[in-house]
Amino acid sequence: MRGALYGTTAAAGVGLLQYKRGTAPHGERGLLIRAIVQACEDAGVDPAEVDGFCSYGFDHNQPDYLTAELGTKELHFSNMMWGAGGGGLLGAFEAAAMAIATGQAEIVAVYRSLAQGDSGRLANAVIAHHVNNHSASAGLVTPAIVCGLRAQRMILEHGFPWSAIEALVRADYYHGSRNPDAVAYGKPLDIETYRAGRKITGPLRLFDCSRENDGAGVVLMTSAERARDLRKAPVYLLGAAQGSQKGWGNLIENDLDYASAGFESVARRLWQKTGLGPEDIDVTQLYENFTPQAVATLVDHGMTSWESVGEDLVFENLIAPNGRMPLNTDGGNLACGFIHGINIVVEAVRQLRGESANPVPDAKTCLVTGGPGSRINTSAVFANEVP
Amino acid sequence: MQRCQGCSHWHWPAVSRCSECGAWDPPWQDVPIEGAVFSWATTWHPFGGTEAIGVPYTTVLVALPHADNRRLLGLWEGEEGELSMGAAVVGSVGATMVGKTEVPSLRWRLAR
Ligand SMILES: [Zn+2]
Predict the structure, then answer these.
(1) Mind listing the domains of chain A with CATH numbers?
(2) Cα B3 to ligand 1 centre (Å)
(3) What is d(CA A237, CA A8) in angstroms, rounded to the nearest whole number?
(4) Chain B residues contacting A, CB < 8 Å?
(5) Does pTM top 0.90 for this prediction?
């Protein structure tokens, strides 16, 4: 039995603006308004018709700040996804789909906007949310160190080869260096540079860490029916899932299944809701806050296993057009840009429309996963047809 | 550490209600500060808030067998090379400056 939202809504337009950190010509709101208008032009709808707004990850740009400039005729739905940081990414899409499928709103913009100096860094927001005195007294002051501690346990418990991490980084930079929208466009990363990256925390070196840049990303969601009448081919949301299993949450590093990314229940329900499995996925867009967490995300979703990570995660398997499990075809958070993950959903839509800079031939389905290791995790499957 | 009066379940972080049996305000019980290394991370980058500790420093996560392996964080007092999964360690209570506040912190070293 598939989920009630299966194929009922679709992405109809995307907008993405990216700048190097600290160089955006507008503030967050200015960036966001432009990205929404871009997404509306992409879809062929009037920005004034957008009647719903969903975001996540502590975005500060509430819809009431946007409506005056968009000319919003009527505002019908406003929603902020709980869950620290980028973990909530696909939960915002699930909320948008629920609103549309139940008639609360017709066209919903799902977005994230980020400009250095406006709302501050996501890490700081996550810190405010997560760090308590017991953590801070042990020097655990930022998500990077939490992820370093967890990555170290993944190494101890699963003994996976670091070659898998290197393959992921190489695939990101391979795709990013070929994507004109990417921060790493024209700048491939050789593996020696990766290995020489300075140590940050635990097993993480510089190039294992996502680094925020300025920008805004928007995906315009509407009903599948309406999307079919708009400018671009619809990219259907087959399903999304959010949450966590028992023994996972605000537990000061006492989470059960600690050496995972925490997607066990989310992934299981995602496959149930979509009637699909890992073998049905043609391309994947992974949220990488830190590289080991991205590998754990793939394991949690059954795309590989800890035992076979070394065989599956090799560079040739991960790249478009011919890899067996192509991923992060825009360069991902590491090499395309990091606007708290919204870029990876934009890429999912572009990839399924055939607009990606690194097209995967005949790709029909795309798995998209939110910030791994979050206390509330989310993931989704998009497709260019409803199987 | 907190241990439920109704079902003996150990709780950390602290709770006002036992998740397993619904009892309110589980009482605290003394537990020896000793355990087994669960994970660790040495931090090299000087993140804000670590000024008083100074890089590099090693954060260690220790499972306490006397509290059903609930895990506590702390700072490692030895060399990073001494650490291995499951290594027996003992802790003492120290203090760390977090911003302008002095916070009690656990310091761990190898048990002998
Ligand atoms: Zn109890």
Answers:
(1) 9-121+209-382 (3.40.47.10)
(2) 8
(3) 7
(4) 12-13, 38-45, 47-50, 53, 57, 59-61, 70-75, 85, 95-96, 98, 101, 103-106
(5) yes
